[in-house]
Amino acid sequence: MKELTLKEIQQHSLKVLMHVHEFCVAHDIHYTLAYGTLIGAVRHKGFIPWDDDIDIIMTRENFERFVMEYESSEDFKLVAPHDKKSYIAFARVCDNKDTLVACRTPWSAYTTGVWVDIFPMDAIDDDENRHKARYEEIHKQWAKLAIPRGAKSSFSKQWGLKGNFKILAKKLLSLNGCGVRKQVEAFLAEIQDKTYANSSHCAQLACCDEWGFYEKKDFEEYTMLEFEGHQLMVIKEYDKVLRILYGDYMQLPPESSRVPKQSKSIRFFHK
């Protein structure tokens, strides 16, 4: 199979994003571009030149509506947290028609193509220090999922001797990924703890690799920004939220950091 270039990954990701956008508009579901995708919209009016994925965020209410109302088709596949074949706590809408993806740490039992990540925002403690302490415990629980997920990977020449050795170690440590769904469901219960339902703060906990302590009100109002020639949804307070996470996000990172973030463990191919 022929591997996708970075530009081709971006083109197929954009196709999925536009499909998700059109569904959300038709069903009155709000989302916002997020993380590097949002920086790209603000700073580049499109992809950050070296970025190889698309991220969007929804409030938990909008997220639950999306995963309940969306129906997969021959062209696009939704993998959501409640799916018994999913190993992640957020959702992905995947290209099912034109591309294939190989992952060293599988995130579902499905074979899919290029995707768009959809992350929910969950309620957290209004005290930032208590939230930080809880976040650290949730992060440990999330990190432990990497072992049984990795055990689900297949040995392959493309991962090399070192990569295949890591897969073997994970298979032995977790009995070939036995119990991965049980761990996912326990993690889902933890991040949706009803104790914080009436709080005024939220964070993205489903993929626990970024720190966040945001006000819920910052995810209540939306506007549009240009992204690759299209007008797409963003929260009105995008500048405030980006500065909490990145500081001066308008400053370009050093050249050594301008690399696709998924390339070490994920490979993309034409179908």
Describe the structure.
This protein has one domain (6-270). Helix content is 36%, strand content 20%. The chain has helices spanning 6-26, 35-43, 60-69, 128-144, 146-151, 160-173, 180-191, 238-246; strands at residues 32-33, 55-59, 76-79, 91-95, 99-103, 115-124, 201-203, 214-215, 222-227, 230-235, 266-270. The protein is built from 8 helices and 11 strands. The strands form 3 sheets. Strands 1, 2, 3, 4, 6, 7 and 8 form a 7-stranded mixed β-sheet that branches. With 271 residues, the protein is an alpha+beta fold. Strand 9 and strand 10 form a beta hairpin.
Number of domains: 1
Question: Major sheet: size, sense and barrel closure?
Answer: 7 strands, mixed
By oligomeric state, this entry counts as single chain
Please tell me how large the radius of gyration is: 18 Å
Average pLDDT: 90
Q: Which percent range describes the beta-strand content?
A: 15-25%
The number of distinct β-strands equals: 11
Poorly predicted spans: none
Structural class category? alpha+beta
Key terms:
single chain; alpha+beta; two-stranded antiparallel ribbon; 36% helix; 20% strand
In short, what is this structure?
It contains 8 helices and 11 strands. The protein is of the alpha+beta class and about 270 residues long.
Helices, strands, pairings?
Elements lengths: L5 H21 L5 E2 L1 H9 L11 E5 H10 L6 E4 L11 E5 L3 E5 L11 E10 L3 H17 L1 H6 L8 H14 L6 H12 L9 E3 L10 E2 L6 E6 L2 E6 L2 H9 L19 E5 L1
Parallel strand pairs: 2-6
Antiparallel strand pairs: 1-2, 3-4, 4-6, 5-11, 6-7, 7-8, 9-10
